[in-house]
Amino acid sequence: MKNFKNKTGLSTYITALKANGSSIGFVPTMGALHEGHLSLVNRVLSENDFAVVSIFVNPTQFDNQDDLVKYPRTIDADIALLKTVSDTKVIVYAPSVEDIYADNIQSQAFSFDGLEHEMEGAFRKGHFDGVGTIVKRLFEIVKPDTAYFGEKDFQQLQIIRKLVELHNLPLEIIGCPIYRAKDGLAMSSRNARLTQDHRVAAPFIYKTLNTAKEMFGTKSAKVVTEWVTKQFEKQPLLELEYIIIADIATLKPVYRKSTNKTYRAFIAVYAGDIRLIDNIALN
Length: 283
Ligand code: PAF
What we know:
Layout: E1 2-4, H1 7-19, E2 24-29, H2 35-47, E3 50-55, H3 65-70, H4 75-85, E4 90-93, H5 97-101, H6 120-123, H7 127-142, E5 146-150, H8 154-166, E6 172-176, H9 196-201, H10 204-216, H11 221-233, E7 238-247, E8 263-271, E9 274-281
Parallel strand pairs: 1-4, 2-3, 2-5, 3-4, 5-6
Antiparallel strand pairs: 7-8, 8-9
Helix pairs in contact: 7-8, 10-11
The structure holds pantoate.
């Protein structure tokens, strides 16, 4: 498997592939790969000739240093997993911090038409500047035809679509359904850090989102979010940070439902010191 640690080597390799007419699909990751990532890579290979997977724990998108330090780093296991998908069609880019940032580990300031101020943006200061910085830089290095992102980070997906639109970047963004464990927990690299008790408690998040979806057919957003809040008050192992029902175009909370808009419920929950996010389409 081709595994590049610096952008120059990767760039030369990809330029040669593209000169031969090959299409390149891209999956940016922070490693600690799981079945959710593999489903994205499989999707890339069903729609493109090659899949580039970047593995880089991006320091500028962490508002919490402890989370950055403890973020799982499992590069050998990640490469072994990717080999199970394809040894020849998957290309890994696992750069050092210097390869990406040189000696200036800072994010650029972005405006994403206000999408960056909602939900994760309100609770994680500077997070989307960090995401915008790394994703734009990776797109410029990899120059993919398409890039694939999971809907678990739905706000991130919408922001990346906005990044591409506002900066006229020449690629297509493809959103992919949330990949869940059998018990409904959305797959996340952070799940590996849950204690056994918290892992058992965590599927309650998706279960509650499903009931919220049913309720949303007949009840207001206010009634539904208040109900969800009450359910979490009864859960000793899970602490709700937010539940927000928002319009997917603006990501602003909905106060009055409108039939021509599309809504999702977004949730962030602490299971011990692990922060989990999830969301569900409501209509
Ligand atoms: O979703 C992630 O894993 C990260 O935010 C991303 C897109 C790889 C940027 O670091």
